[in-house]
Design a protein that fits this description.
By secondary structure, the chain is α+β, with helices and mostly antiparallel strands. The protein folds into two domains: 2-132, 3-Layer(aba) Sandwich (Rossmann fold), CATH 3.40.50.300; 149-201. The chain has helices spanning 35-45, 72-80, 113-119, 138-146, 151-201; strands at 2-10, 13-19, 61-69, 89-97, 102-106, 109-110. The longest helix has 51 residues, at 151-201. Keywords: ATP-binding, Coiled coil, DNA damage, DNA repair, Nucleotide-binding. Belongs to the RecN family. One of its GO terms (biological process) is SOS response. Residues 160-187 form a coiled coil.
Length: 202
């Protein structure tokens, strides 16, 4: 569950700190008071795209932070996705400015937007206008089906996820190696070109 929410410079909101509990909570107010904007802030924390129009007029950047309490199933799910977590909470921050600079962190680690969206499946659900609903999320379909597995099926599913995570890690290493190779090749071309120019000058 979402325990704390902090928003700075989001639309008409200058600064907002909210604390939630396990009881039913209703946000009420007149039209234009900012109820939907609070939901926009939460949507940033579950992986929705940001845009500069969201930044408060007269300000240069926007910041959102949420602290989520996790149950054992959610922690297990995150670990299966390759995001190791020992604590019972998830701290997510989003920052972006008018110069298109952005930063996403989860428990202090920088992540991509797609990775954040992947991790937040089954953590929180924003229901409205057919968006963010678990039943429309293919990733969540697998989670529902897994609940009907027997012990043997669960063990097999666990091994498959471990293998998939290992493949993802290897693919990431391959991409890093290819990027380094490309940089080395680029430097080699540059120095060869510089060497040829030096020889010609001599």
């Amino acid at each position: 569950m979402l325990r704390e929410l902090r928003l700075n410079n989001l639309a008409i909101i200058k600064k907002l700190d909210l604390e939630f509990n396990e009881k039913f909570i209703a946000l009420t107010g007149e039209t234009g008071a900012g109820k939907s904007i609070i939901l926009d802030g939460i949507s940033l924390l579950i992986g929705e795209r940001s845009h500069t129009d969201m930044i408060r007029n007269g300000e240069e950047s926007l910041f959102a932070e949420g602290i989520f309490e996790l149950d054992e199933n959610q922690k297990k799910r995150l670990n299966e996705l390759g995001f190791e977590i020992d604590d019972d909470e998830l701290i997510i921050t989003r920052y972006f400015d008018r110069n298109a600079k952005s930063k996403i962190t989860v428990n202090g680690s920088r992540l991509t937007l797609s990775r954040l969206k992947e991790l937040m499946v089954n953590i929180i659900d924003l229901v409205g206008q057919h968006e963010h609903q678990f039943l429309l999320n293919e990733e969540y379909h697998l989670h529902l089906l897994d609940r009907f597995l027997d012990d043997e099926g669960k063990e097999l599913s666990k091994k498959i996820r471990e293998n998939v995570n290992e493949i993802k890690k290897l693919n990431s290493r391959i991409r890093n190696i290819e990027e380094e190779k490309a940089k080395i090749t680029e430097k080699k071309i540059f120095w060869n070109s510089s060497l040829m120019k030096s020889i010609i000058l001599i």
